[in-house]
Give the backbone structure.
Amino acid sequence: MPNPWVGVVPYRLAPGRVQGWVHGAAAVPEPYLAALRRAGLEAVLLPPGGVEPDARLLASIQGLVLIGGGDVEPHRYGAPRHEKVYGEDPLRDELEIALVRGARARHLPLFAICRGAQVANVALGGTLHQHLPDLPGAGLHGDPVTGGGVSHEVRVAEGSRLFAATGRTTLACWSRHHQGLDRLGEGLVAVGWSPDGLVEAVESEDGWLLAVQWHPEETADRDPDQQALFDAFAARVRARAGG
């Protein structure tokens, strides 16, 4: 059976972001694609501004992946804009929020990473901490503006999909984010926490949705626990596709 197709929404790059390119571009960092390939999946890019999340589109893919990127516009979860918010992309927000809701309605497996976890939470009615350094006792979670990341442990809830995928109650995770999940969206439950108490992973009470705040793709080529997240997603995709 051919590898199932999963939709991936790429970054939108401004004109000149790629040296020598006059026009803008849509791109997905290679580590995401490599981790999906190792899991036996093929990525189909869904560029913001170029597709509509209608029934025909959602029927053409067997799963959905939301990847990292800039911040979600704060007005989408009813908050004023913090001065540290950066990299907003209204077209990408609009597409991804609609895709989350469409995927949930069609019971499509959904794997959301970093910004993707934040988008999924907002799409389901949740809110975000706009700047983690403002929180008392917040630990280090990296700096997405400079690209600096940090490694930290994540405590995993036994009995969760995250635990079933990895068999671990503690994971070593690589993070690069300045925002985090605050109030959880409808139907989401927390299943992973960093040492400072920040929710680092959520999953859905029904269907198959797993959202993690760290970047498993960055270490999945050498850490079986992180690749296991992509493998668990792929297993669910194949089961839904009948393969």
Summary: Residues 224-241 form the longest helix (18 residues). The chain is about 25% helix and 25% strand. Helices lie at 30-38, 55-59, 90-106, 115-123, 161-166, 224-241.
